[in-house]
Amino acid sequence: MAKKDIDWGSLGFGYIETDYRYLSSFKDGKWDEGALITDPNVTLNECACVFQYAQTVFEGLKAYTTEDGRTVTFRPDLNAERINQSAARLKMPVLPEGRFIEAVKMVVKANEDFVPPFGSGASLYVRPYIMGTNAVIGVKPADEYQFRILVTPVGPYFKGGAKPLTIRVSDYDRAAPNGTGHIKAGLNYAMSLYAIVDAHEQGFAENMYLDSATRTKVEETGGANFIFVTRDGKVVTPKSNTILPSITRRSLIHVAKEYLGLEAEEREITLEEVKDMAECGLCGTAAVISPVGKINDHGKEICFPSGMDEMGPITKKLYDTLTGIQMGKIKAPEGWIVEI
Ligand SMILES: *Cc1c(COP(=O)(O)O)cnc(C)c1O
Q1: pLDDT per position as a tens digit, 70-122
Q2: CA distance 295 to 207
Q3: How do residues 48-84 score in pLDDT, each as one tens digit?
Q4: From ligand 1's centre to the CA of 230, what distance in Å?
Q5: Which residues, 6+ apart, have CB-to-CB distance to 320 below 8 Å?
Q6: Atom 14 of ligand 1, residue of closest alpha carbon
Q7: Atom of ligand 1 nearest to the CA of 249
Q8: Are 39 and 300 in contact (CB under 8 A)?
Q9: β strands within the chain, DSSP E
């Protein structure tokens, strides 16, 4: 397989058009069988539900090359499950059993020349999405949909290694309480754009969102969950039904317990107790873990003992073990690595 002539090592985190994308349409109450197509543009009616009422949900996963040269994805069954939960919450039809993984395999295989080689630090980002496509003007769900998958080669999320970030406590909410905060949908991202641009203008990498109801509990950032290490070496992560259940977070908790022999738990975490934590990181598919060195709470700084130069020691162990599992260097739990 001849790889494309791309300088893999200098890829950023952006969109590059590839040869194929996947499309399946839902009409008259059922999904068609789906196929690969070549046109990167989508033509829809001006009144499509996705444009007017943002009826769209998405997923994000990576395909990459392992040390022994296999093209694989990481736990795609969890993305399949989650896109259906997101779709159900926005009154969209769910995908038939098996369809999601079959489509991911099809589109990655067709674009195999774009899967970056092992050791380049790059991967093929896979973006499945479902949207309401027919014209809707009164407030109601669409009755026609498209399930699409686009892929794009991306470089490491943070160039030159993961330097600890400085973030701030946000006065904005990421999503509505008891609303759609636990699903992966563009509407939550649209609502976070104002806060993220504002944070960047003030010199912060991200926003720490608090729970809307009491503003005392840690939720997540715009696109990643928090993971903390307590001073006695326990791994803890916020429990909340208004945050997105990160697959990376769930995998890290398993790694902490089963591979590193650490205590790990999902529980409510108050902003008050964050100052007593030893390490802090943001976790998600794009960067796996981005360490946080400092949190600014309205001018008051919380500085983690791990500092601003490198990841904390336990964060680093979690990171190395999970990326080792993903790359085939460490034996993965059953079903985590799915070959294309
Ligand atoms: C995608 C996403 C995450 C990270 O989830 P992963 O499954 O680990 O990639 C966290 N928070 C939000 C809001 C997200 O959209």
Answers
A1: 999 999 999 999 999 999 999 999 999 999 999 999 999 999 999 999 999 89
A2: 9
A3: 999 999 999 999 999 999 999 999 999 999 999 999 9
A4: 23
A5: none
A6: 223
A7: 8
A8: no
A9: 21-27, 30-31, 35-37, 56-58, 61-65, 71-74, 123-132, 145-154, 165-169, 207-208, 225-230, 235-238, 264-267, 277-284, 288-297, 300-303, 337-339
